[in-house]
Amino acid sequence: MTRFYPFLFVLLWSTGFIGAKYGLPFAEPLSFLSTRYVLVIAVMGLLALATRAPWPASPRQWLHIGVTGILVHAIYLGGVFMAIRHGLPAGITALVVGLQPLLTALGAGALLGERVLPRQWAGLALGFGGVGLVVAHKVAAAASTPALAAMLVPAVVALLGITAGTLYQKRFCPAFDLRTGAVVQFIPTLVLTLLVASQTETMAIEWTGQFVFALLWLVLVLSVGAISLLNLLIRGGSAVNVASLFYLTPPTTALIAWAAFGETLTGLALAGMGLTVFGVWLARK
User: Fold this and answer.
1) CA 76 to the chain's CA centroid
2) Max CA pair span of the chain
3) Mean pLDDT throughout 12-25?
4) Beta carbons of 104 and 159 less than 8 angstroms apart
């Protein structure tokens, strides 16, 4: 069963654009995420209490798990949502965040002592090239977007957050209970996100049916399902193997958008998908 976790994680993680697409028109990004975090804490907290799940045994464990939450959720998700809200095209966002496996490989050798083989470097390079082909038409269309450099800032912050979070969790707290660990991760995430939102946003939300659907999708499918799988993958595999899976998100997202919303798939994008899959296979072989 565990061999299917990577495929399921990629599929669930790739549907995150559904929540952003449907929810952001009705709420500012950090207000949207804060609401999401409140529900995640409530759901996982009740589950932890009902099943008598073990809590972290020491203050140090609480601290390390909390730090991973801030990096992976507050900084990464906050950066991505703010980039999308402020007009950064999805293709460029995917390309920036797509650098994460390469950065993780650099950090894995220096911080974790993991040996990254030449074959893995080749796979990571091919994977990034494939992602570039998948989103090439969107990047070309957005190249002349006004104030593009300013829009890139939150995307770059998100890239640094998810990279640092993956490395930090692998080094300091690779294993923890998924139920209580989620609560410990999302409490400091909520505090930080609320603090920034209160200073930068009106925090007004339009509670439409579309917004509620997007919110529940992000809570149940992403924050509960995909994040739990990500924690399991970090626990059981090398940082490079886990990070390489993020290359598969843009191609999978493009396929979902084509099937669900009728978005165009170019021949270049299809070639990029094949190259990405081959690169990830080479990196994880």
Assistant:
1) 7
2) 55
3) 87
4) no
Cα–Cα distance for residue pair 99/252, rounded to 1 Å: 17
Contact 208, 27 (CB under 8 A): no
Q: For residue range 72-102, list pLDDT tens digits in order.
A: 999 999 999 988 888 777 777 888 888 999 9
Tokens representing 236? 């059981």
| Token pair of 238 as six digits | 């090398």
User: Is pLDDT of 146 > 70?
Assistant: no
Overall size of the chain counted in residues: 285
Q: Does residue 143 register a pLDDT over 70?
A: no
> Measured between alpha carbons, how far is residue 179 from residues 31, 187, 240 in Å?
24, 13, 25
Closest CA to 18 of 160, 207, 216, 180: 216
How many angstroms separate the CA atoms of 213 and 216, rounded? 5
Classify residue 20 by burial, with Cβ atoms within 10 Å: 0-12, 13-18, 19+. buried
